[in-house]
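Sequence decides. Our protein:
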Amino acid sequence: MIRKLFAIVLLIAAGGLVFYSLRTESSASGKSLTVYCAAGLKKPVEAIATQYQKELGVKVSLQFGGTGTLLTQLRVANRGDLFIAADDSSIAEAHKLGVTREVLPLAIQHPVVAVAKGNPKGIHTLADLEKPDIRLALTNPEAASIGKVTKKLLGTHWEPLVKKASVLKPTVTEVAADTQLGAVDASLVWDSTLPQFKGLEMVKLAELSNHEEKASAAVLASAASAPEALKFARYLAAPEKGGAIFEAHGFQPAGGDKWAAKPELVLYSGGVNRPAIEKLVQDFATREGISITTVFNGCGILCAAMKTMGDSSNPKFPDVYYACDICFVPPVAENFPEAVLLTEAEIVIAVPKGNPKNIKTLADLARPGLRVGLCNAEQSTLGFMTQGILKSMNLLESVSKNASSQVPTGDFLVNQLRTGSLDAAVVYQINIQNQIEHFDSIPLPADKAKAIQPFAVRKNSPNKQLGNRMLTFLRSHQKSFTDAGFVWKGDSDAIKSADLDIPEWLRQK
């Protein structure tokens, strides 16, 4: 035990960790957070934490060090609520190690060279840094993000620079301080580091400055309270809260959601998605500590509701839209310019068990006296697609004569089949998935039987990042979709709504 404690002490000493706690004996709320933060972000994060404690009464304990050192510390300690890293790859590594969950971008940074005001040594290029008379300070790439990033960008130039470097330190603030004091002529730092040190200016190198990294806050898997950790992360990223403080300290804010202690997210979803996402949405709201208004209905009704609102300034306008098929994205593409194709659902003809009417094809639905259930083409995706399928096969008029019911969603049709008021209905296979003992399904032509469900976040939503985190959350629960009967498609990148491949017979006029 003593050896383990000694090892941890050595790790802290070698890595240059700094432990800092807001100086308040107790917080009004009794809540507290432990945050591991990259040393280069110390000043703005300290200021944000102080303001957060004053406004919300939550004590924030901050531990500073090089990003790489902090990540090692996290693996040993397995405690804490947030990890604020200076670069993307460290966040990715933390996720790979299983120590983090949600990620919220805070600031955008670029690697540059720091020199004294007026650049007295005339440093303008990488070749200038390599000159024998230039005293250079670098950070250890094992400890600090700026060292890791610049090592990768400089490639074969890195090792010669290390050999000639006057010092190799664990944090970006230390090499910047050496440059300010005149102990060295130049150092490799983030552009956001320079405003924190008087008497310094930056030199942009072609090999470095076109590259950008995001400083981000990641919720730790060890967080005592995910909602509290996420609340502080949202505060850090919010433009009018943490974002304003980052900017005042010379950082370029990454852009977060509008601040709200308990955000309200509005989700519009086609009815077919309900079996897969209803519980997931509740779980997401609980984890985030937010409220979600979820409206399930036919997509025709949902799109009409959006159009009725006029524009997205209406507080009831959805932040997130999960349609039943891509054909119902174009009507609202102005507000939802891109989408992720999350799932696929099969459309079938549902009949009572045993298929007493011996229905085998869509053409059979036109037989005289048959009671057929179709969804309303103006109200629902399923109805619109059914209409398009029948029309493309020259069956619309003949089958419509037998349509004794036209409703907004397939669930209504399934209920009517159960009561015996219908002989057949065109529904999603998912609609009968949990009642398979009561129904048989007849497949449709393969090129017409698939509905693809796109998930989209509104472009100007004040909760855009929250909506994207919902997408990430849903993607991490693929089994919920496959158990409900969907085919999973959600690992692909987002597609622009204008580029969605919609068959001619499904395009809305």
Q: What stands out?
A: The first helix runs from residue 2 to 15.
